[in-house]
Structure formats: C-alpha cells, structure tokens
Amino acid sequence: MKTVKLKIRKGISLLYAGIFVYTFSACSAGRTEQQPNSVSQDEQQLYIGDSIAVAQTQYGKVRGYLLRDIYTFCGIPYGASTAGENRFMPPREPEPWEGIRPAVFWGDTAPQITTGKYRNTYTTFTDHWNYYGVSEDCLMLNIWTPALADTKKRPVLVWIHGGGFTNGNSIEQDSYRGENLSRYGDIVFVSLNHRLGPIGFSDFSEVDEKKFAESGNVGILDLVAGLKWVHNNIAQFGGDPSNVTIMGQSGGGAKVCTLVAMAETKGLLHKAVALSGNITGAIDNNYSTELGKYILKEAGLPPSQINKLQEIPWLDYIVLANRAAAKYDKQLGGNGMMRGSFGPVGDGFHIPMDTFYTDPEAPSAHVPMLFSTTTCEFSISRDNATLEKMNRTQLVEMVDKMKGKNGENIVLAYEKAFPDKKPIELLGLIMSSREKVIEAINAKAQQSAPVYLAWFGWEPPLFDGRMRSFHCLDISFWLKNTDVMLTHTGGGKRPRDLSTKMTDALLSFMRTGSPNCTSLLNGRNIHRTREPR
Fold it and tell me: What phi and psi values does residue 129 have, to the nearest 5 degrees?
C-alpha cells in the first residue's frame, strides 16, 4: 500500500504520496474577477417581485430573490416531512404544489439538541451559529446561481454541513453561504439539511425487518434523495447535472466519504471533497441493531408496539435514544460515551459492510477525491493564554493521557518532524493527527480515480495568535467567504489572497478532476497519488 510523504510549507500545503505531477494551467477558466461583486454599492442590491427569480422544479414553481446579481433560493423542499408515520422511513417525495412557493428563507433544521449554542462565550462570538426553526419537516435545500435555465452547463457544488452525524444545518456558519463562490466561479452552489442523530440513524431492522429495514440509514438516504433532486432539477437553475461535486467538512466530510462509497449515488456525483472529516467504514450492523433493541427496551415497549416511537415528540425520542445508547455502551465496557452511537450503518445493501473503496469495479472507483485537514484542529489555548507557557514535561504528561502512556515516543517523533515548534504547538499537531485522513486516502488510492491531499496551515491574527489553524477555519477560504466570516479570519487582503488560490484549485477540481492551476502556490503543482490508468 502506498504511503503519504508529508512536506510542510507556510500557508496551505498540498501533500501527496505519489509519483506523478499533473499540470493544469487553465485554472481561471469560467471565473469572473469581481471585487466583491458586480453591483455598485450605490445601486439597488436586492430585487424580489412577481417575475423576478422564479424557477420551475418538478414539484412546482419557486420564487427566490436576486441579491447582487446572484439568484438565491432558500428552503426548497426535496422531500416530504419526516414526522409521524414517516419517521424512521426512507425519504419520500414532496407533494407538488400549485402556484409559486416562496423560497426566501432557510428551511427548518433537522431535530437535534441545540441547548447551549448561544451562551455568551468566546465560542459564540467566534462561530455565532445560525439556528432558526427546528422540526421533522427538514428536507430542504438552498441554491445560489448566476442564471436560471440559460442552457449554460455550470458545474454544481453540493455543500454538506458538519456537526458529526448529530448536529448542524445547511447555514450553521456564515462560511456556508454560496453567493461569493457562485459569482466568482460561475457555478451553482447547493446546500441541504437532512435527518441526524437518533431520528436519522436508529436501526430497528431486527425489531421489524419488513417495515424498518432501512431505518438505520435514513439520514444518509436523505442526502441521496437530495442528490437525485439536484440531478432532476438543477438544469432549471443553470447547473449541469452531469458535473456535480459534493463537498463537506467535519461530519460533512464523513458524509462525503460515505456517499462516494454507496453504489446508488452512481451518476449523481462526479467528484468529492472531504475536509477534516474522514471515514473508511460504517457502523457495524451488529452494534446498530442491538442498540435499536436497547432503545425499545428503554421505552418500555414490546416489538409489537414499535410504531409508538413514531408518535412521541422528537425531542423526547432523542433524549430516550441517547440514554439507551449510553447504557448500551456501558454494558459493552465503555464509559457511557456512546462509542458507536448514531451514524451510517454498514448494512451491505445501501452501504458496504467492509472497508470503503476496496472494490476496483465499484462506481466509487471513478470518482476523483480531494481530502484536506488543518494543522491545529483543536486549539486549546485560544481561551487560556497560560497554556502557551506549557513545558515539555507537561506536554508529555498530556500526550500520555491522550494516547495511553506512549507520550515520550510520540513527542520525540513530532519534535523531530517539527523542530521549530514549541510544546503548545506540538500538542495541537498531535491532537490533530492525520491518521484517519491518511487511512482514507490510502484506501481510495487503490482505485483508479485520482486522489489529492491538502494540509491547511494559515493562522488568523485573532486572540493574540492563539487560534492557530483550527477546525472549520478553512471553510471560508475554500468557499470565498473570508470577508464574510470575519470572526474566523479577521478579513482583509491577506486571507482573501490565499482564498483566491484555494478557490481556484477547487474550481479547477470541479471542472477537470484536478486541483492543479496556475494561481495555486505561485505555480507549484499538486501531485497525484498515482499515474492515471
């Protein structure tokens, strides 16, 4: 199996294990240079009216708005409500509607526990999460596009939000907004909500094999349904259904890995980008089915009354299911922290039971992938300046607790690789271990499509430089939003210039399957993991 050789550079470093350099010089093809948009600030910015921003979908017409020359649609249903008898069921198509449906505000967030999101802390200041309505009628998507039904086949980017498989929504961070990337790259940007946590991944297939056979994977099947909607409707929004790139960060990256591995996404996605979230396999179905039985037991219901779980309020069900998962984990010898918990299940039907990407003949073999992580996913000294003075002995002690009494050897290895780093910086690197992403890229490297690996190391000048290159920071750079997410970047020319290079690489990848372009790293090229077959 090939290994990945790391090379460290300032800013963003693109790293590879391979032997082949692939050069693509037309990076800026299709993009427009507009700073920050084509509408003068003295002109009207927003337009909405009877004949403005109206688009046809297979279920009926929708009306959005035109903001700074970008058509924007929010809260378009791609599936029916998942409440009541639809809970734990595969997604169903929405009912067609008469007239024109408003699509001017975000659809409801999937059921989840949001308590504590808005405490008055530095985290609230930095991330200022966006949460609005929360309900089981959550299968909604958003679209940003430069034009409608103009026969121009624009690449499509489908953004999949983070939050593990338990939290988040399509507009959770301002970084997720698609206006700037749509304008800059002349592409169509889509984001969507889907079921999460116990509502999306409770496996009752062994309780009622006929009715609930797919219950353990309905949350990921929602995303498949969203991709089908894009395939069937995106041409009406100026997009090319034969050129769809999926992209996600953190839990969204894990969802990207899962979707690529699913045979039923063949023809629905063509390239994939996973940021700071990677998996090479799903939850073992023995675990998930036993957890399903535990949930029923916790509810005090016999198998014949499982339907009652579809009737209780969604918040009550989430609390009950989490309590059951903690008890089950404790029985297995864990500490009650839900070591498997709720996420995609390897059922052998929708999702492979073995390691992803091992089949050279699978549809995933033809999907180019770009993986990326940040150098300091977890910056623990941001709110605690005293940790900056950590000494080597304290570092080894902390790594011992994290890694199981092997701290000295681990610290020695990192000191050798990064001789200029002080203890707190080494801790950030160790906590942000790239082991999982290396596993993912090595697994994908066994297939024929090209694979690329990036390492993001830019650090914002905020909190006296203690934020470092933290989890989620890179999103605004990839999506041309560094001046939108000011509490992550500080704003201004320096992050904007790096964002241009990264955005150009992403646009090149969307168009050609390779991120190589002339503006990236002053002309340096990204290496493939292998020669094309």
Answer: -55, 145
The answer to whether 306 and 204 have CB atoms below 8 angstroms apart is yes
Task: Tell me the C-alpha to C-alpha distance, in Å, between residue 235 and each of 119, 230, 419.
Answer: 42, 8, 52
Work out the widest C-alpha separation in the chain, in whole angstroms.
Answer: 69
* C-alpha to C-alpha distances, 260 to 31, 165, 217, 413, 507, nearest whole angstrom: 27, 16, 15, 34, 19
How far is the C-alpha of 84 from the C-alpha of 149, rounded, in Å? 36
R_g of the chain computed on alpha carbons: 23
Comparing 119 with 288, which gets the higher pLDDT? 288
Q: Which two tokens stand for residue 376?
A: 């300091």
Would you tell me how many other CB atoms lie within 10 Å of the CB of residue 97? 13
Residue 219 · residue 195 · CB < 8 Å:
yes
Which residues partner with 533 through β-bridges? none
d(CA 479, CA 252): 15
pTM as predicted: 0.91
Please list, in sequence order, all residues whose beta carbon lies within 8 angstroms of the beta carbon of residue 33, skipping any fewer than 6 positions away: none
473 token code pair: 């920071």
Which is it for the CA torsion 415, 418, 420, 421, positive or negative?
Answer: negative
Residue appearing with tokens 């039904």: 149
Counting every residue written for the chain, the total comes to: 533
State pLDDT tens for residues 424-467. Answer: 999 999 999 999 999 999 999 999 999 999 999 999 999 999 99
Task: Collect all residues with Cβ–Cβ distance below 8 Å to 230 and sequence separation of at least 6.
Answer: 141, 156, 158, 190, 239, 241, 244, 268
Beta pairing class for 527-528 and 20-21: antiparallel
Measure the CA–CA gap between 65 and 45, rounded to whole angstroms. 11
* Proportion of the chain above pLDDT 70, given as a percent: 89
Dist CA 405 CA 399 (whole Å): 8
Bridge partner residues of 73 (DSSP): 143
CA–CA separation, 57 and 19 (whole Å): 46
Q: Which of 52, 7, 175, 13 is nearest to 521 (CA)?
A: 13
DSSP per-residue string spanning 127-150: H------B-S---EEEEEES-SS-
Burial class (CB in 10 A: 0-12, 13-18, 19+), 384: exposed
Q: In what order do the strands lie in the sheet with 70-77?
A: 12-15, 451-456, 369-374, 271-275, 239-249, 154-160, 188-192, 140-145, 70-77, 65-67, 46-47
Instruction: Reduce the DSSP state of residue 452 to 3 states and report it.
Output: strand
Helices (H) and strands (E) in the chain, counts: 14, 18
- Residue 300: Cβ within 10 Å count: 9
Distances (CA, A) of 280 to 359, 365, 456: 13, 14, 22
Using alpha carbons, list the distances in angstroms from residue 251 to 48, 161, 225, 471, 472. Answer: 35, 7, 18, 11, 11
Unique residue bearing structure tokens 């020359």? 69
